Amino acid sequence: MARTVCRIVGVGLLAIGLAGFAWPTMLGLHLTAIHDILHLLTGLVALYVGFAAPPTAARVLCLLFGVAYLLLGLAGLVAPRLVAAVLGHAPVSAGELAPDNALHAVLGSGLLLSAKKS
Fold first, then answer.
1. Backbone phi, then psi, for 62, in 5-degree steps?
2. Backbone angles phi, psi at 53, to 5 degrees
3. What's the pLDDT band for 109 if we cut at 50, 70, 90?
4. Cβ-based neighbour number of residue 59 at 10 Å
């Protein structure tokens, strides 16, 4: 299951990373070049693990990326200005980052669930 999730997440992150360069406010998200590059890199890692790495690596990736994305979603609620600064955004409120925070929290939760079930 984790390998399949890595493949799906990898394709999704690559798509968001590429689309973000052309459409930085896609679906209410706040995408910057740094943000897009991070999505591209994490997408490539997820695809590599999903297709070429051993199944245990997929579980580890789901666990690590799950924790990272979930914490990023929570940090966006608690310290939105810090998250915005790290990702190259202008200062924003937690409300303005709500779509980003929700996406990161859902992605993180899904990855953690996949790690647990694998």
1. -60, -40
2. -90, 165
3. very high
4. 21
Q: 95 in helix, strand or coil?
A: coil
Secondary structure letter of residue 53 according to DSSP: S
Structure token digits, residue 82: 């810090």
43-96 pLDDT tens trace: 999 999 999 999 999 999 999 999 999 999 999 999 999 988 888 888 888 888
For residue 79, CA distances in Å to 12, 22, 69, 83, 86 come to 26, 27, 15, 6, 11
What is the domain count for the chain?
1
Nearest to 72 by CA among 44, 30, 33, 114: 30
Domain hosting 90: range is: 2-117
Contacts of 51 by beta carbon, 8 Å cutoff, 6+ apart: 3, 7
Secondary structure (3-state) at 97: coil
Cα diameter, the chain? 41
Question: Are 52 and 3 spatial neighbours (Cβ–Cβ below 8 Å)?
Answer: no
